[in-house]
Structure formats: C-alpha cells, structure tokens
Amino acid sequence: MSSQDPIPKQSPDPETLNDPEPKQPPIEVSEVEVEAEAEGEEEEGECGFCLFMKAGGCKDSFVGWENCIREAEENKEDIVEKCFEATAALRKCMEAHADYYEPILRAEKKAEEQAIIELEKEKEEMDLGSQEDSKDLQKKSDGE
Fold first, then answer.
1. What are the boundaries of the region Disordered (predicted)?
2. What's phi and psi for 39, nearest 5 deg?
C-alpha cells in the first residue's frame, strides 16, 4: 500500500479499549441505514452526510447541533450566535474522534484555507484601489 494508508497498522491503545464511544472506521451507508431502522431512528430521506455524522462517536453532539440549527431557522434567529456552543461541542467531539471524522475535518480545513486566501485577495484589491484613489487625489491636488 502507499505511504498514506488511511488505516494505521497499530495495536489498540490500552487507554481507549474501555472508551464508551469507541473509535471506529467509517461504515457503509447501507449498514448505517439498517442500524437506524432497527433502532427506529431513521428520518425519511435523511442525507448521507447526516447518516455519516450519526454513525460516528459524535451522534449526540450532531443531533444537538442539528436541533439548534432547526430552532434558529424556525425562529429566524442568528444561527451563529444561537448555536455557537453546540457547534463548538460538535467540533471538539469530532476532533476527539478524528480517525472517523477526518474527511470532514480535512474538508473544513481546506474550505477555511480557501476563505482566508479569498479574503487576502479582496484585501489586496482594496489596498490597491485605495492607493490608486490616493494617487488620483494627489494628481488632482497637484494639477488643479
């Protein structure tokens, strides 16, 4: 296999053997659907992302976050402000279960990096525009 094998070949960590939410490799959606139906928890037409999030160790945090978002939307509240704590708790849980949630964490990091690049480009464009405006004002004050 390649040097970037997604499943490390290590013996189990003795400290996590008794972990109440064991870290598991991603399971197939079909298995998730079967488990959810058996538990009577599957929502009609639930998205693959939601199934993935609920199949890992952060199901409770994710459901709490989902409920917060739903309430904020229904009450026309600021989602960021209302759900800050739920989002932070979900993020902390996902980082604690990074082996399972790594694809989501990686995509989130990439999106954050891209947003920073875009903000820097906008700032540079604004700075250049300000410099151009300053030069134009200087020319007008010198020439008129």
1. 1-44, 118-144
2. -90, -5
Contact (CB, 8 A) for 13 and 22: no
Q: Which pairs with CB-CB distance under 8 Å and at least 24 residues apart come from 88-97? A: 89/61, 89/64, 89/65, 90/58, 90/61, 90/62, 90/64, 90/65, 93/57, 93/58, 93/61, 94/56, 94/58, 94/61, 96/57, 97/21, 97/23, 97/56, 97/57, 97/58
For the stretch 6-48, pLDDT in tens is 444 444 444 444 444 444 444 444 344 434 444 444 456 789 9
